């Protein structure tokens, strides 16, 4: 298959080529997919997208007109694809449902540990030969309560790490994983979890229900001084509400690897540009905020798995017309056929 890879970086090429034992032809494109760049897929059977590519209805109409038959996501989330438009256009949508839950879970704890023990501030001080400990006090994780919102594979891995630190773990999920249940994680309603947790970490997909799930009302329910971590999707947090809580010193710390307007920021070197996003600029002013640029997934093991599953989706589609891991809902009769 001829595949146009949008938002392609050097590392995407490296891992996809290493996994490509089937002979697919990849065309690597630096721009992200949108209605203006969709024409770059001309001549391709499939396109390969990442988290900030936008396959909305207008872009899908263009892709369908070009003869594209498959959208292969090299990520697990698919909120950036209009699934109804894709199915109506006869375009299959594939994803990577699981690549390395440990990678994201470990990164969430890296943010938590750095925030709690002020590692980012201590690092800068020591480089200036300032060895004062004033303002660097944290708290023991042992004995504290970790609230995990979303108990899929990543949330479950996070709960397991929390237990390793000696934390009490609470969960909130209407459909927790079997492993989370086996771990004995008590499931509670979200308001209860927020009220009881010293650390709240988010691991849920972005849906109409979860968009701005953590808003001013949710933050008001949290313990004063609690730390909030988000490695899921940026728009699960209401950024304006979080900034207000930080200004009021309601939150003890905020660690985020995602941001609701990240598409115009992340994955590019913008060090020579003026930062036009006022909300993001305001977040950067708080000493108890730590931001990474959507790198939670970025380990060798995860990238290898993403590439392997992407190739498997392409192989299956080439052979059967349906991806191995489809994001489209099919009636049972079609799945069994």
Task: Give a quick rundown of the structure.
This protein is 36% helix and 13% strand. It is of the alpha/beta class. The two termini are 24 Å apart.
Question: Could you please describe the fold and organization of this structure?
Answer:
This protein has two domains: 2-99 and 300-336, NAD(P)-binding Rossmann-like Domain (Rossmann fold, 3-Layer(aba) Sandwich); 101-291, NAD(P)-binding Rossmann-like Domain (Rossmann fold), CATH 3.40.50.720. It has a six-stranded parallel β-sheet, with helices on both faces. A five-stranded parallel β-sheet has the order 2-1-3-4-5. Helices cover 36% and strands 13% of the residues. The model is unreliable at 330-337 (pLDDT under 50). The protein has 13 helices and eleven strands. β4 (70-73), α3 (83-88) and β5 (92-94) form a beta-alpha-beta unit. The two termini are 24 Å apart.
């Amino acid at each position: 298959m001829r595949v146009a890879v949008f938002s392609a970086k050097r590392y995407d090429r490296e891992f996809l080529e290493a996994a490509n034992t089937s002979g697919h032809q990849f065309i690597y494109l630096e721009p992200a997919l949108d209605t203006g760049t969709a024409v770059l897929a001309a001549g391709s059977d499939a396109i390969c997208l990442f988290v900030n590519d936008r396959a909305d209805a207008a872009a899908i109409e263009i892709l369908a007109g070009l003869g594209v038959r498959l959208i292969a996501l090299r990520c697990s989330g698919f909120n950036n694809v209009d699934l109804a438009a894709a199915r109506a256009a006869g375009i299959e949508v594939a994803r990577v449902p699981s690549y390395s839950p440990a990678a994201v879970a470990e990164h969430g704890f890296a943010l938590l540990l750095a925030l709690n023990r002020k590692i980012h501030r201590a690092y800068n001080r020591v480089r200036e030969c300032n060895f004062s400990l004033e303002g660097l006090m944290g708290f023991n994780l042992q004995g504290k309560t970790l609230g995990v919102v979303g108990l899929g594979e990543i949330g479950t891995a996070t709960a397991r790490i929390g237990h390793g630190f000696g934390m009490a773990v609470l969960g909130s999920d209407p459909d927790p994983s079997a492993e989370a249940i086996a771990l004995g994680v008590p499931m509670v309603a979200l308001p209860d979890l927020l009220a009881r947790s010293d650390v709240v970490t988010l691991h849920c997909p972005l849906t109409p229900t979860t968009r701005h799930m953590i808003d001013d009302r949710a933050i008001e329910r949290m313990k004063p001084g609690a730390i909030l971590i988000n490695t899921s999707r940026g728009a699960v947090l209401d950024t304006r509400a979080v900034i207000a809580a930080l200004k009021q010193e309601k939150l003890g710390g905020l660690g985020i690897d995602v941001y609701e307007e990240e598409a115009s920021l992340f994955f590019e070197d913008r060090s020579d540009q003026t930062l036009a996003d006022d909300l993001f600029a305001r977040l950067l002013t708080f000493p108890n905020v730590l931001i990474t640029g959507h790198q939670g997934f970025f380990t060798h093991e995860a990238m290898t798995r993403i590439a392997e599953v992407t190739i498997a989706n392409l192989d299956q589609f080439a052979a059967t017309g349906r991806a191995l891991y489809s994001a489209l809902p099919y009636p049972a009769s079609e799945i069994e056929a």
